[in-house]
Amino acid sequence: MFIRLGKKGDGGYIVDLNSVLAAEKLISFGINNEWSFEAAFYKQRPVPLAAFDHSISQRVFLRNFLIHYSFGFSPAKAYRDLLALLQYKSFFSNTRKHHRLHVGYNSIPQMVSFAQALEISEATHQHIFLKIDTEQWEYRILEDLINNAPRITGLVIEFHNVDLNLERINNFIQRFPLPLVYTRANNYGHVTPEQLPLLIECTFSAAAVKRVKPFTSEAMDMQNSRKLPPYNLSFA
């Protein structure tokens, strides 16, 4: 069964419910200023959350709110930052932890390796669901995902600069044991002259059931931006 977790548009993902229910922990690499996916996941499966994002904090949200409200006044951005500021402390509490770290190379300040992230998450032996939106750093942890696949119940991942990394993406899909169950083009990205999207979202599930018919649902399969033209994928 497929469900949508997170807000309408950007920030929401389609996942296999069985992969959510099988998880003992949710680990998110990349949060930014909204965590609607994590909140929706928690309602379906109230397991501990470890979220990694070095770029956010209450202080950052306050600073951004003041900038958007006072200087380059933008009501939408100011409201977004104020909402994040007000909700941050209540959401990230108890078993839902935010770690102000980025996942990549531990030789870089404020970065940890994939293995270190698992240790910090106290998830070295648990079954985990992973959400990854790390702005091109995803390519540096693909081998870690393959090596840890036996205990990954589900994965949603954004691939950036697809035109430059298409071979790496194809190689990962072929080698990653979890079946690819859903793919969409994120229309916040652009397309090449050959109409190849530069930004795609992929969902993998260890509990996938083979479907006879293609998955289509306008109620769940929403464009990331309603203001931009939609991108439709075609498969040869």
Low-confidence spans: none
If you compute it from the alpha carbons, what radius of gyration comes out, rounded to the nearest whole angstrom?
18 Å
Share of β-strand residues: 15-25%
Query: How many strands, what sense, and barrel or not for the largest sheet?
Result: 7 strands, mixed
Find the structural class using helix and strand composition.
alpha/beta
Q: Calculate the terminal CA-CA distance, rounded to whole Å.
A: 26 Å
Question: Which CATH first-tier class of the domain at 2-57 and 100-205 would you pick?
Answer: Alpha Beta
Number of helices: 7
| Fraction of residues in helix | 25-40%
Could you give the count of β-strands?
A: 11
Average predicted local confidence, pLDDT: 88
Shape field: globular
Describe, in short, the structure shown.
The chain contains 7 helices and 11 strands. It is of the alpha/beta class and 236 residues long.
Folded structure, characterized:
The strands form three sheets. Strands 5-4-3-8-9-11-10 form a seven-stranded mixed beta sheet, with helices on both faces. Strands 1-2 form a two-stranded antiparallel sheet. The chain is globular. The chain has a domain at 2-57 and 100-205: Rossmann fold (3-Layer(aba) Sandwich). The protein starts with a strand and ends in a 31-residue tail after the last strand. It is of the alpha/beta class and 236 residues long. The chain has helices at residues 17-21, 36-44, 58-70, 75-91, 114-120, 142-147, 162-175, and strands at 2-5, 13-16, 25-29, 49-52, 96-99, 102-103, 111-112, 128-132, 152-160, 180-185, 199-205. Helix 3 (58-70) runs antiparallel to helix 4 (75-91). Strand 3, helix 2 and strand 4 (49-52) form a beta-alpha-beta unit.
